[in-house]
């Protein structure tokens, strides 16, 4: 008669054996993970996330975490009485807002993630893009059409930047010392000013600069869905353009996929849009044949 306990142990052993080819494939490679959304605000999911990155590091994968923090910045701005102004859904970052953003991102959130990783048995070092000149940003230039004249007008979003230059030495030094870099999306401009950078954009630029094997964007949706709500598991830049044209992809998914396209065309092997609300979604994506999200390759 079979022993249920023995069967359960055997199933666990078989899971590890199934994962072995993937562990061998990715050992010594680099994964860049953008961590944010509602998964970051859920203590249970935060524990799962920390366990995942510690496990990846333990099997020889160099994990680099880039985190967001929009909701937390909004809450702190409200707390200190700084009013947010938005243009076309983008927060205008004046000097006071930039100071609060740096305090929340480089301080509270960054060190909280470092703490979660330590609790899961790993070692992490929290830095921002300013440290060691890691990320140099340029001011974001945006335009919008005047609703009356339909003339394109420049929009000043204040201290909002995008990566212009990445120096990977700080990241490589931290990873080489056996630790996990946890990076806040704050960068210095060539003028020495401080810029708030979109976390997806920062992660994509870092993944490209490192020639990462994977860029993971953890989101609040399962991935890219077709018009019937089914998950699209493999996409190329050309396919994404077609899906944008026919309206399948819209809203906030467009900038995420543009980040993925830029990363894979600039040196990252592949990018994955994943549901960060699903426990251990990254492990399911990496160590199983089925995967768990939408994979984007250069084509």
Structure commentary:
The structure is a single chain. The chain has 299 residues and is α/β, with parallel strands linked by helices. It is 41% helix and 24% strand. The protein has helices spanning 4-26, 43-58, 70-79, 95-119, 169-176, 199-210, 237-245, 253-265, 281-287, and strands at residues 30-35, 62-67, 85-87, 90-92, 124-128, 135-139, 142-145, 152-155, 160-166, 180-184, 186-188, 194-197, 214-219, 234-235, 270-275, 294-297. The strands form four sheets. The protein has an eight-stranded mixed sheet, with helices on both faces. A four-stranded mixed sheet has the order 6-9-12-11. The relative contact order is 0.15.
Instruction: Give the overall shape, derived from the CA principal axes.
Output: globular
Give me the strand/helix succession: HEHEHEEHEEEEEHEEEHEEHHEHE
Biggest pleated-sheet summary: 8 strands, mixed
Number of helices: 9
End-to-end Cα distance, whole Å, is 52 Å
Give the strand tally: 16
């Amino acid at each position: 008669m079979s022993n249920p306990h023995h069967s359960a142990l055997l199933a666990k052993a078989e899971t590890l054996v199934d994962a072995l080819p993937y562990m061998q494939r990715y050992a010594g490679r680099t994964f860049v993970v953008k961590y944010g959304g509602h998964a970051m605000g859920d203590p249970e999911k935060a524990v799962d996330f920390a366990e995942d990155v510690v496990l990846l590091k333990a099997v020889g994968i160099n994990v680099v975490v880039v985190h967001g923090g929009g909701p937390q910045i909004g809450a702190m701005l409200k707390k200190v009485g700084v009013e947010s102004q938005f243009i076309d859904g983008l927060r205008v970052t004046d000097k006071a807002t930039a100071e609060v953003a740096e305090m929340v991102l480089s301080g509270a959130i960054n060190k909280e993630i470092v703490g979660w990783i330590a609790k899961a048995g790993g070692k992490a070092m929290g830095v921002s893009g300013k440290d060691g000149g890691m990320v140099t940003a340029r001011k974001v230039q945006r335009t919008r059409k005047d609703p009356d004249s339909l003339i394109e007008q420049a929009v000043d979003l204040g201290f909002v930047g995008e990566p212009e230059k990445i120096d990977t030495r700080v990241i490589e030094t931290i990873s080489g010392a056996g630790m996990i870099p946890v990076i806040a999306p704050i960068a210095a401009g060539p003028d020495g000013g401080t810029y708030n950078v979109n976390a997806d954009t920062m992660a994509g630029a870092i993944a490209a600069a490192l020639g990462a094997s994977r860029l993971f964007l953890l989101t609040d949706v399962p991935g890219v869905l077709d018009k019937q709500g089914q998950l699209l598991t493999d996409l190329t830049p050309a396919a994404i353009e077609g899906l944008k044209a026919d309206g399948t992809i819209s809203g906030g998914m467009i900038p995420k996929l543009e980040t993925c396209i830029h990363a894979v065309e600039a040196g990252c092997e592949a990018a994955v849009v994943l549901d960060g609300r699903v426990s251990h979604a990254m492990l399911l994506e990496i160590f199983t044949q089925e995967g768990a999200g939408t994979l984007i390759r250069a084509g």
